[in-house]
Design goal:
10-stranded mixed sheet
Length: 326
């Protein structure tokens, strides 16, 4: 690192007593290594010992001190075969150089502390459908592996998820749909397809292959927060000859699945979302055909943002967990 120090001289009188010319600062380019070499030589008063302490040759140590002196424009040591004798300039420079290096070391320590705090916090937002099943399972695994990590996550509607990312309240968001803002980067984590969730003992669950046409006469429980999913279902059912009129409008996936578990209706969503749900023994997810509608689970970040180490670890665990669900 090269430091540019500006030393100002005292103002000097000009052509009259009433006018002065401002002093021009003198720029000095020195390096931290030169300053450390100077401090070491000053304390040890011996070039050989100072070179050993700095893990360099005696000639390199001598050259570094000379460069430091040349940058300052003044001799700092009187050299003899055995001893380095500090000059008066060295006596004055020592305290200032020591203070500069102390400040640099303090800056490094503060930044390291800040980095460690940043690395020990996992802050993200996710769709409620994820927080109701797969995400808690992965968070528990992360906590067992790294109990020191503070976890902050929000489950909210789609627009709120992205707002928290853009406002830098969270590092990333997990959701199902692309977003328009240029400031958002969306990356697929896993690909799945829309499935119908029904009771395991129902006639629909017994079918080897389930199509959208099979849902025409069935009551469907609609997740009212999922406007875009609503559109997908409506389009798919229209091709099967049915207008989409949900039997129930529900805000939360837990409630929708609880109703489905009681045989009150069907839920359409990506199949992996019921994994880890309390009703998973009662319910099954059957892939819907004609057409098959694929949905990606996406991670949304600010453009240009590099995920922290703990975020990368969490995402890797999430992908591994989703892959294990089949």
């Amino acid at each position: 690192m090269v430091l540019s120090l500006f030393l100002g001289a005292a103002p000097q009188s000009s052509f009259s007593d009433s006018a002065t010319i401002p002093a021009m600062p003198v720029q000095i380019n020195i390096t931290l290594r030169q300053m450390r070499a100077f401090l070491t030589a000053y304390r040890l008063r011996n070039l050989t010992h100072a070179a050993d302490a700095m893990n360099m040759t005696q000639s390199a140590m001598s050259a570094m001190i000379r460069q430091f002196e040349e940058s300052l424009g003044i001799r700092l040591f009187e050299r003899t075969p055995r001893v380095l004798r500090p000059t008066k300039a060295a006596e004055k420079a020592f305290a200032q150089v020591e203070a500069i290096l102390d400040n640099v070391n303090a800056l490094g320590a503060d930044m390291q502390d800040l980095a460690e705090v940043h690395e020990s916090v996992l802050a993200f937002s996710c769709a409620p459908a994820l927080s109701a099943g797969v995400v808690p399972t992965v968070l528990a695994k992360l906590h067992r592996a790294a109990p020191e990590v503070k976890i902050v996550f929000y489950d909210a509607g789609d627009s709120s998820l992205i707002k928290r990312v853009l406002d830098e309240e969270v590092e990333f968001s997990l959701g199902f749909f692309q977003h328009e803002p240029e400031a958002v980067a969306s990356t697929p984590l896993v690909m799945d397809h829309l499935s119908v969730v029904c009771r395991a003992d129902s006639a629909l669950a017994a079918r080897e292959r389930v199509t959208w046409e099979d849902l025409v006469s069935e009551p469907i429980i609609n997740l009212s927060r999922g406007v875009k999913v609503h559109q997908l279902i409506s389009e798919a059912l229209s091709t099967a000859g049915r207008a989409y009129r949900p039997a129930y409008e529900i805000s939360f996936i837990h409630t929708a699945l609880a109703l489905a578990a009681q045989g009150m209706g069907l839920v359409v969503l990506p199949g992996y979302l019921i994994k880890g749900n309390p009703h998973v023994g009662t319910l099954v997810a059957k892939k819907l055909h004609d057409p098959v509608i694929e949905r990606s689970l996406l991670i949304h970040t600010r453009q240009g943002h590099t995920l922290s180490a703990v975020a990368v670890e969490f995402i890797d665990m999430l992908k591994e967990h989703l892959a294990s669900l089949g």
